[in-house]
Amino acid sequence: MLPPIADLKRAALDLLFPRWCIGCGKEGSYICRDCRRGLPFISPPVCVYCGRPLGHEALCRGCDNAPAQIDGIRSPFVFSGIIRQAIHELKYRNLRTLAPSMAGLLNDYLTENPLPGDVLVPVPLHRKRLRERGYNQSALLAGELGKLSGLPVITGCLVRQSYTAPQARSVAVADRRKNVAEAFACRDSRLKDKRVILIDDVSTSGATLNACAAVLKDAGAASVWGLVMALEL
Fold it and tell me: Cα separations (Å) of 150 from 111, 136, 208?
């Protein structure tokens, strides 16, 4: 049986443009076996809401008494080291071929730490930023994760209706929440009664994911969890 066309294309690209580890430069894969051992994994216990590492308490200080629409946020990594570099390469340097490798790491995490989910929904970009960048890195991750996990990916339902400053530029948590207030909308009822897993690359304060969750629950989603590549501590 002949291999799928996508696999043939990927093999041809690998021959023309060999993959180099973004950590050590070794040829073969974007994150080699040696560098994979040094990835900044998050180990339990973690905050039940934002997923950040904790001591013995159930909630971190930032989530204690903070209203949250999202059921929880989880991530395999801290936003540092090779993972930080990989996200920057995917997000700002057009290295879209990194998405399958990164989605593989997310799928490994999801397999070991299942979340209630019927569908995957990428956090959307505003159409202006989508034109500027040419692609949505979260949609790339969601698409590749969908292939691995078997979960359907729904796009075009959750939309970003206002153009806001990047969250990394807003230092205070209150500013981040204000930055995304009313930024999102739900266009239709495809996610009604669905258990949604929101996919994004990085969560800083959780404000974006929480704003998305509020809109989705207003539209009838049964539950909303966030799954991101890395958490900024």
Answer: 12, 21, 25
